[in-house]
Specification:
globular
Length: 169
C-alpha cells in the first residue's frame, strides 16, 4: 500500500486529519470552559492551580524542585504558580524536617477542601457530558486519553522537553 512521506497510508491521512482537528477543538473548548465543572464552582480554579493542588494531594508534601520534577515543569514556574496558592491559604510552606533551610509545600486543610469541591464539580460535569455513554465507553475513553497523554509526554521527553505525567483523578 502506498504511503505518504510521513509513513502514513493514504487511508490513515483522513483519519489523522480528523484526529488532529478534534484534538485542537477539544483543547480550545477545554480552555474556554477550563472544564471547570458545574454550578458555582464552575471556572473557579485555573488549570495550573488545579494540577499543583492535585499533585500535592496525590503525592504528599514536597519541595519545589521535587514538585517541579514530578510535574515536568521548571522550578521557577512552580515557584511562580504556587505563590498565589500560598497567599490564599490553599498551600502551606513549612520547613523541611531534616533540613530547616529547605521549604516543603503541602496542601492546607483549606486547600484540600477547595480541591475536593472543584473535583466534585468537575466530576459532575464529566457525568453530564457522558450521561448517554455506556460505562464501557467511559472506560475506553479514559484509557485512550491516558494513553494519548502518555504518548505526548514520552515524545516531549524524547525531544528534550519537560516530562509531564498524565494524572488520573
Amino acid at each position: 500500500m502506498p504511503t505518504t512521506p510521513d509513513m502514513t497510508t493514504a487511508s490513515d491521512t483522513g483519519l489523522l486529519d480528523t484526529l488532529q482537528h478534534q484534538v485542537a477543538v477539544f483543547a480550545r473548548r477545554a480552555e474556554q470552559t477550563r472544564l471547570g465543572g458545574v454550578g458555582q464552582v464552575r471556572n473557579s480554579m485555573d488549570r495550573a492551580a488545579y494540577l499543583l493542588l492535585n499533585r500535592l494531594d496525590k503525592e504528599g508534601p514536597m519541595g519545589v524542585k521535587a514538585l517541579a520534577a514530578s510535574m515536568g515543569i521548571d522550578s521557577s514556574t512552580v515557584t511562580r504558580q504556587v505563590a498565589p496558592l500560598v497567599d490564599t491559604g490553599l498551600v502551606k510552606r513549612t520547613s523541611h524536617p531534616e533540613d530547616g533551610r529547605a521549604v516543603v509545600l503541602q496542601l492546607s486543610p483549606r486547600g484540600q477542601a477547595r480541591l475536593d469541591e472543584v473535583r466534585s464539580s468537575r466530576r459532575s460535569l464529566m457525568a453530564e457530558l457522558t450521561e448517554d455513554w455506556e460505562p464501557e465507553e467511559r472506560e475506553s475513553f479514559c484509557a485512550l486519553l491516558t494513553r494519548f497523554n502518555s504518548a505526548l509526554s514520552a515524545r516531549q521527553s524524547a525531544h528534550g522537553g519537560a516530562v509531564v505525567e498524565p494524572q488520573a483523578d
